[in-house]
């Protein structure tokens, strides 16, 4: 059914564009029709080898009609504007993982309201002497264009680094209670993991490994973290009646959940994961006085697995010495041209948990960023758990926000020292917002309810190429049988499909320009 041409990186000898159209049998008003034009004039084929095309869809179009377009020897640069946006757990429009096939969900239209779906396509590097193909279909109407030769080709820019970011992975206590310091009794409880979860975790981490990331970041909420509680009174991690007992229970729970969380990455060859602390690493909000007393214990247990070696030595030399978050915040350079910073945005105060970076940590951050700027580091990425800019999409979230006044000050610091990208989670959905040249990307989600997504950021000298990937998921029924956690438990049945699709794109340039914003990363208005 597919065939045809995208005319990318091409000179088409004379004509202004190439058109092919087809209507299915029956009146045009009753059946969708297709018409495609590939631009060929000098203004339509840019220096970086992209070409623009238009698919004109006529006829009666029911809501959520799926227009499918496939390219050969070329990829889509973005999701077209007229395609309805996918958000977490609602799949409307997407690109397949190789970006060669577009599924575009259209809103309803009558025969007098044809739609012009405009798209940008990019050839696969230097394809001089080869051919490009393309085809489109809507319902039982399909179209193909004659293959065309590529007469001009451009070699792609060399990628310097690949970052994979997935905040809130997994936001659940998933663990085999026969391992670590737990008192598991199969006669009285259900284990905290089963074959469904093992397969689902392997599916996701196999996919991540296949992307060959140089750096993986997880901006908080690795676990559920209600470890000083015991809803069922089973004392799996010991009694929790006193503060001392709750501290011991947190240590014992960490030996199960953090140890296995980290080991899963290592088992998939992903030794380069760098997490942050979220609210669930501090036992989850809210924080009554009794839970506030446990904040230092929660922080210490997390640090034992992620920022300190087995003998207590720091794993990151660059950290805010003197801050209560000395072992919860850190900075490093995976390459000389990339500065990475992890912040801890939870500061216990008398009677409350302040959602901000504490002052000693802020002073340290200024020093890190000033040095990076003085060293001429072109790319600076920061991760923290909480969104600072608004509005952002959210779902199944307590919707925490950074303290307003402190957030304004922190953002000014980002802008002053040239931070390019701030990665955050908490809200379990995707929104991109740029202010003062700094891009905030909130993303990620809850594993057991299928809201998982991730960012793949390819770093080049001139720009960042950003794509959000989202998985097909089954399960997660709140009324399903449950695996054990210290509070409500998690649904027993989940399934993730491999080969996630692309639901959002963007390019961030070294001069701060933001282009090719599409899909879930397009500007958001509530």
List keywords for this structure.
16% helix; 7-stranded mixed beta sheet; 29% strand; globular; 526 residues; 30 strands; 6-stranded antiparallel beta sheet; alpha+beta; disordered N terminus
Secondary structure: number of strands: 30
Q: Report the average pLDDT across residues.
A: 90
Ends distance: 40 Å
Instruction: Based on Cα principal axes, name the global outline.
Output: globular
| DSSP strand content | 25-35%
CA gyration radius, whole angstroms: 25 Å
Structural class: alpha+beta
Describe the structure.
- There is one protein chain.
- With about 525 residues, the chain is an alpha+beta fold.
- It has six helices and 30 strands.
- It has a seven-stranded mixed β-sheet with strand order 14-13-12-23-24-29-30, with no helix packed on it.
- Helix 2 packs parallel to helix 4 (about 295-305).
- The longest helix has 25 residues, at about 245-265.
- The two termini are about 40 Å apart.
- Residues about 1-25 and about 40-45 have low confidence and may be disordered.
